[in-house]
Specification:
- By secondary structure, this protein is mostly beta strands.
- It has one domain.
- The chain has no helices and 7 strands.
- A 7-stranded antiparallel β-sheet has the order 3-2-1-7-6-5-4, with no helix packed on it.
- A hairpin with a 2-residue loop joins strand 6 and strand 7.
């Protein structure tokens, strides 16, 4: 699946949810604000961990039921990487 890329626009994640895994409890974004509009995500999503030298970057593929969003968490900074209609 190809996600249309953006110029990495910073967003605000206003809510998260937690899920148990073999590695422990993992957090996922549940709600974001982008361009003044609030988006609520379904509690289904994928999380990818990327080790970039000394830093851990997390990518999330989440959906609101109509659009698939790819978000990146780098430290405490959230970025909308891309989105694609489903």
């Amino acid at each position: 699946m190809t996600i249309n890329s953006f110029s990495n626009q910073e967003i605000e994640v206003t809510s998260v949810y937690f899920r148990n895994s073999k590695k422990g409890i993992e957090s996922y974004p549940k709600r974001m604000v982008y361009e003044g509009r609030e988006y609520n995500f379904l509690e289904e999503g994928l999380r990818y961990l990327i080790n970039k030298k000394d830093k851990l970057v997390k990518l999330f593929d989440v959906s609101d039921g109509q659009v698939l969003y790819r978000l990146r968490l780098d430290g405490s900074r959230w970025t909308l990487v891309g989105m694609k209609g489903i």
